[in-house]
């Protein structure tokens, strides 16, 4: 014990080896500058010994808060990252320790996306790992629930990138046919189809963002359709869980085959949610009925950003959304990329924009819109001065549509971005529009600069 | 002045120009910054466009694919529907044919129909298979397409990444370039500024140099001018100087002479002063010596004073303590004294009693002895001498108790007054009664009792003297002052000197008779005035009379002088004229007279009082007569008788001697007679005894012989 403390190198050697001092270069040197721990004193300080003892027995008897700040740092520097979380979770708040934990566990880490908090990163990723590897009926739900009191205060975002389905019964071959369609709600099947978030979400009282994908990562050649299934049961439990989570601000469910029914169920449970700000249902199968539900949600929540690109929304659905949009006063951003709105939906949206005074960012790319929509949009460009950015790429607006837009754009002074690539507009109108946009940008920039200057001067005086 | 002002203005102009330049230049750099900023924004937007182009292309492709898929789906559905229709028709035909086939009874036909049926079925199945095959083909195609899409997407992603990297690189390069440009522009500006400033600086330094040169030349010129002037002034000054010097030299000579004179006088004065100084010094020394001596003396005296003060204080303290002690002693001794007095009185009383007892005892004894002596005398006279005895007169035998000397104490003032009053009243009241009354108030006031006692005791001592005086004085008084006058005087006193009586006493006296009242009043007045004895009373009266004589003349003179007298005076005159002897004093003069009297009278009385006081407590009895008394007792047998007794005694002695001799002889004879008888008896015995017979020679023979022999 004493040997090991005299110098870190000395303890390694058997006592006989000490005679050969030249073998250890450290013995030959008076001062070892590169080692910050090195000290001239031969006998370590009693306080250091005590601290080392504390470090060694931290698991049995965690003493940290009672120590002096200097000693605390000393102990935190030496604590092993593999200590059980039950001991460390609520006791240690020092980021250095959690950084070591993260580095040890995942190697490369980007802490900037976690609010520069290593602890948050550790717990979020830890919880995500647990949930992603959770197999229904096979894993004990206590493994998740046990983590709740430890990580409850630190988890703000959950990004679930996969969810395991239950283990297949031997009658797998028979079920193969049914697996294509939605699960048959088998009475004697597994108690759940995926992890049930209902047991978790209401307990995480700091959760703000929730991303979930109902799929299995890297299945490779073991592909089966039922690995990518979002069943009604799942939808039901998820919807309830979401309803119970009152702090949620951002919800993202994508690539999960959310169809109209499921969308409606989710939206029904999200109505009047107290804090939801952003909803992302991209890469799903939402049709007109789902769009209608979303339209209903728009005016019964505080949504600021709605993203439903790559879905199957057509004219009627767009009309429903447009109807909601006309009355809405909170939505700032709307993304309807890669849907099938057509002229019917595009016109409806544009008509709504004539009334709306809050939307700033609109993406209508790839929606099979043509000239009629462009004419209405040119009206919007003239009348609406809150819209900052519009994306109409991949719509066959045609030469005439481009001209109409150009005309509308001439009377506009608020548009900062206007994407009309691949819309078959004439080069002339394209140039004109881009010119106007640039002017607007410059103006906005100047305005911004003067405002900044004003702020600075006012601060100065 | 003007130049400097102008230059200042120039400077100002330069300054403003400079500022303008700076502004312009600053604008240039700003312009550069703005330009580069714009360029960068453009570059950025271009870059993002370039990058997002891929996405947009992918989007369009995707949308196209979606439409295609939709179209294919629609076609497929149509195709399937058509196929289903045709197959249904075919199927119906087959089923129809089945009924036809059932009708057939000829096996040949049946076989044909069956085979045709079979063919038809095969056809149907073939169609279906074809469809399936087509679909499978389509699926394969779509699979291929999917794979292609995937590849394409991967390519796109790669392309995107590549473009992004390129973009980043390009942007970084352009940023660097812009930065360099901006820096260059700033540098350029700075250079321009520097050169401008340096130019200005050089210009200013040059100006300054020129100015300095000018100044130097001006200064040189001025120096030369001043030198010429100086030379001129110098010559003038030397001439003046010489003149003044000569003049001053003569002055100096004169002054030197004066100085010599002054020096001489000064010498003289100095010597004088020195002498004076010496004298003064000496005096001063003496003074200092005397002063020091005085000082020393003062200090010494101060010390002495201090010491004395301390001593005095100590002394005072001591004396105070002593005084305290002495007062304590005094009180103690007083107490002791009182105690002693008490004891003494006690002892006096006891002694008196004892004395009386002893006296009585002795007297009794003596009387018994006297009686015995007388008896013996009588016996001697009657029996021995045979004379008739007569008893001598023995007056003292009748009396018993100690001899009471009849002391005629001086009559107290009180008694005198009462007597006088009695006289005035001529009432038949006994003297004893008055005495009782007099004793009453004395007993009432215990404070006075002691005094009375004391005075009484004092008076007792000199009783004999007083007696004699009184005898004398009474005669005098009777001669000078009549009793009546005295009584009147007393009444007057009683009226006039009422203030001396205590108010309390007055109250007490109110119920008494007038005479008694006045008696009491007078008594208290006299005690207040210190008049105690009758003698004093008479003295007072006498004094009053005398006073009246002297004063009366004066008053008369006064009244005569004034003509109109005061009513009191008139009354006094009236009273004096009315009263037959007209000896009485005027009431107004009573107090004055009293005062004079007390002033005269009190001193001798005090002396007497002190004298009396010293005699106090030595209460002696008059023992002069005792000796005579006892002597008389002892002389109850007169000298002659004693002589007789002596002679008688001598004779009796002689007679006694004779008688004693006779008695002696008688006794002798008697004893001899007895001896004879005894001897006879013995003889008889011897003779008669038997022994004799035994003897050779009987005694009786001897006896017979003996007597013969002897005889």
UniProtKB/TrEMBL annotation, chain A:
Its main location: cytoplasm. The keyword Cell cycle does not apply. Keywords: Cytoplasm, Cytoskeleton. Residues 166-185 are annotated as: Disordered. SUPFAM superfamilies: RNI-like. Pfam families: LRR_6. InterPro entries: DRC5, Leu-rich_rpt, LRR_dom_sf. It comes from Oncorhynchus mykiss (Rainbow trout). This is T-complex-associated-testis-expressed 1. SMART domains: LRR_RI. The gene is tcte1. The lineage of its organism: Eukaryota, Metazoa, Chordata, Craniata, Vertebrata. One of its GO terms (cellular component) is cytoskeleton. Coiled coil: none annotated. GO terms for biological process: microtubule-based movement. The keyword Cytoplasm applies.
TrEMBL record, chain B:
Residues 628-687 form the Dynein regulatory complex protein 1 C-terminal domain. Residues 56-157 form the Dynein regulatory complex protein 1/2 N-terminal domain. Its main location: cytoplasm. GO terms for cellular component: axonemal dynein complex. The keyword Coiled coil applies. GO terms for biological process: axonemal dynein complex assembly; cilium-dependent cell motility; regulation of cilium movement. Residues 11-28, 465-477 have a biased composition (Basic and acidic residues). Keywords: Cell projection, Cilium, Coiled coil, Flagellum. It comes from the Eukaryota. It is found in: Cytoplasm, Cytoskeleton, Flagellum axoneme. InterPro entries: DRC1/2_N, DRC1/DRC2, DRC1_C. It holds the Pfam family NYD-SP28. Residues 1-44, 458-478 are annotated as: Disordered. Residues 70-97, 125-167, 245-343 form a coiled coil. Belongs to the DRC1 family. Component of the nexin-dynein regulatory complex (N-DRC) a key regulator of ciliary/flagellar motility which maintains the alignment and integrity of the distal axoneme and regulates microtubule sliding in motile axonemes. Plays a critical role in the assembly of N-DRC and also stabilizes the assembly of multiple inner dynein arms and radial spokes. Coassembles with CCDC65/DRC2 to form a central scaffold needed for assembly of the N-DRC and its attachment to the outer doublet microtubules. This is Dynein regulatory complex protein 1. It comes from Oncorhynchus mykiss.
